[in-house]
Specification:
two-stranded antiparallel ribbon
Length: about 200
């Protein structure tokens, strides 16, 4: 779910494109709490700009994340979703407990979603697919998840206020807790190839 903030006085509006598993819930909560009734939340449908005219109209930003970390974060999401019984995917805790590599081989390229809340997404969808329109990056600013605390000032400067980021959806496992098989690495590098290229170009 992405959001935009309506223009108000000297403020020209802001849109945040939420790429799944990139700290978006924390960012949405921070912006929503600051602007309150001026925030409009919108449900994305894979390519986030496909049916949402408002998002590209305002100064827009998104957060990019290391693809390996993002894959682990999706695995973490499975754990929380199974416990809360909120996935339209036939996966059990026994499946989750078989480990990250089992998840990668059996669920990474499948579609899943939260019934009645968001359209189905696939963990294998690239980050680039959420921020492109007509094969061009359609957001004004890209922040790096790993350096978000240091880069957040760019959003605060644009808004003109200090906005504290909460910590939502902290993962059960870190990437250092996971031993990736050769097959898992190949899946990540294949499906996220465009993301690796984009992140390299930003360095």
């Amino acid at each position: 779910m992405s959001l935009y903030v309506k223009p108000n006085g000297n403020f020209n509006g802001l849109s945040f494109v939420h790429i799944p598993k990139n700290g978006g819930t924390s960012i949405r909560e921070a912006i929503r709490c600051h602007f309150q009734e001026d925030v409009i939340e919108v449900i994305y449908e894979n390519h986030v700009h496909s049916k949402i005219d408002k998002l590209p109209s305002y100064f827009s930003f998104a957060v990019l994340r290391d693809p390996y970390q993002r894959a682990v974060s999706f695995y973490n999401e499975m754990y929380h979703a199974i416990k809360a019984n909120r996935l339209d995917l036939s996966i059990t805790m026994d499946d989750y407990n078989k480990g990250f590599n089992y998840y990668m081989e059996n669920y990474f390229i499948k579609k899943f979603g939260n019934p009645g809340v968001e359209p189905s997404i696939s963990p294998s969808d690239t980050q680039l697919s959420y921020i492109t329109k007509d094969n061009k990056i359609a957001v004004d600013l890209l922040l790096n998840f790993d350096n978000l605390k240091n880069e957040w000032y760019k959003i605060e400067n644009y808004i003109g206020a200090e906005i504290k980021l909460p910590r939502w959806n902290v993962g059960k496992m870190k990437i250092t807790d996971v031993t990736m098989s050769k097959n898992s690495l190949e899946l990540i590098e294949h499906y996220y190839a465009d993301d690796f290229k984009l992140l390299t170009s930003m360095q």
